[in-house]
Amino acid sequence: MNNKTSHFSFRILALDFILLTVSFFALNYYKRGTLILSPHYYIKLLIAFYFIWLFVSFLIKKFHLESYYNYRDATLVFIKSAVFNAYLVSLMVVLLGLPVFSRVHIFGTCLLLFFLNIVIFSLIYLGGAKKIRIGELKKQGLKTQSTSDFTVMLILADFLIITVLFFGINYLKRETFILPARYEKLLIVLYGLWFVTALITRKFDKRNFQNYFFAIAPCAKAVVLMTLTMSVLIFAFRLFYFSRGQIFGSFLLLFLSETVLYYIYFIWTQNGKRETDIETIDEVRAVLEQHALSPEREDKDSRPRCIAPVKDRLKGKNLSSHPWLFDFINKSIDLSKIDKLDTACLSTRDIFNIQSIDDSCLRLLINMHKVNNIRSLNRYFLEIYKKLEIGGYFVGRANTIFTHSRWFFDNYPKYFAEFFLALHFFLFRTLPTLPGIKRIYIAVTDGTNRTISGAEVLGRLCFCGFEIIAEKEIDYNSYFIARKVKIPSADTSPSYGPLIKMKRTGLNGSMITVYKFRTMYPYAEFLQDHVFKKNNLTEGGKIADDFRLTELGRFMRKIWLDELPMVYNWLRGEVKLFGVRPLSMQYLSLYTDELKEMRNRIKPGLIPPFYADLPKTLAEICDSEKKYIEAYLEKPMRTQWVYFWKVFSNIVIKGARSN
Length: 659
Known about the structure:
alpha/beta
């Protein structure tokens, strides 16, 4: 989720624990003139403080070195720590009804801890231990803020809901809509919290309605902020005479009501974007943009206009509201060679709309609808494939795991973003793949809004006969341009499970099927040509920045867990324990003809000579394999024994690992 390396520090944890303890006992001495905790329930308060402090610190990554890259970042961490500690301790006091605790002691402890954090960090920072220029760290994080677009209808409906709920709960508690004394002031405070948290979370912003989950997430965040802030107010101003059930019940029911309200609004905005029918002559003329035609008029210019290049039409009409998309397409494709008649620009998830187009009649097909909502994705890509001429282009978009992650982390604090992202991944990625639940998910959602990786989208396109021309992230969407260049894959079936099988070269150049645990996203195996063209090889011959790898897959490769199923190939006699690695035809094409011929004379192996010589470049890998093969062909037993001890030394003693 986050590309930054995490460095947990026990020293920071120990130091902060000491500072919290000092702060708590210092406030106890200030209030009572003694370090002894009295009354006895303050010991329980200290224990609660420790648990809350630990929870908050892990939540905001207070004990991670990357939180202290510069003075500003460190200050923000300390502010969050103080505020959240005060929030949660106050929430505990209010919910448990413990007004006996001293406000000065609790809030003073949080404030003193913040002050001590600042002082200690300032001494370390000024000492030069962690000076890093802020500008260098923040360059990559710059993004353009778009103007907010709030919907008045939702604001009024939400205001009405919280009002009705507050008076409704009052009626259930007192059998009257008339508010008790001072409850009018409480209602005004609730209105203020509702308004402020709505501004902070932007829960009425239309940009949130990319899907239902994006829309409802700010509502949950707003309710949490309202609850925590109200707890602080109750504790700080001793407002325990107000009904906590009426206050927090209103917040909880508000969120539940918003889940229904936002669902209705989401469905209405998605399905209600229909223009009214044409019922007047003026409307007809406005749509057609022409006056009455003479029956005798011969339109000699219509055909040339239809076969003119499509560039001007895309820029001025089809993509006029998406100039950045037009620039992307124009830079990747020569639009001067594509006519208007050979182009289709759509926004549909219905495959029928694709099927209605004649086969092999288009040079360019653009579909603005995201592929996440296509139920049968391969069938959809194959239908587009049939409509394009050889060399024709397909432009589409997807919300990928990466773009979802970017959206969450750009719009929420890290601790909220990680939770929402994990929940979104579970609901829209994990559930649709579970047996049994998959059918229920499709029945309820019609297969829409699935979370999908960018590697899977591009891999499916390659599987269906396309070549990836270009890809670009624009406004949290991944746009791609694919070209019809070959027949769809007919020799390899895609794999979707945890165990995959791959075609590799074996003895005498024969093809063998090797088995591994999945470390890449589904359909990633069809992207090998694309990745080789796009990326360079790192030291050790691996592909640099291979986006096809999952986070779990990277870990499995480091400890060779992914290659455990290849023991089955060893038992079948297709590979031996030590030997050159079985390669794909794509990777083998990088080798010289001489080395290819030498590799054909021996069985491949589970453990390659790479771990004996530790080469860094492809040329060095080739030299390492050539040296091993020559030694093996001359003295096989001795070579295996020598390489065994070299590999054992490098892996076990020196800690050599796979990338």
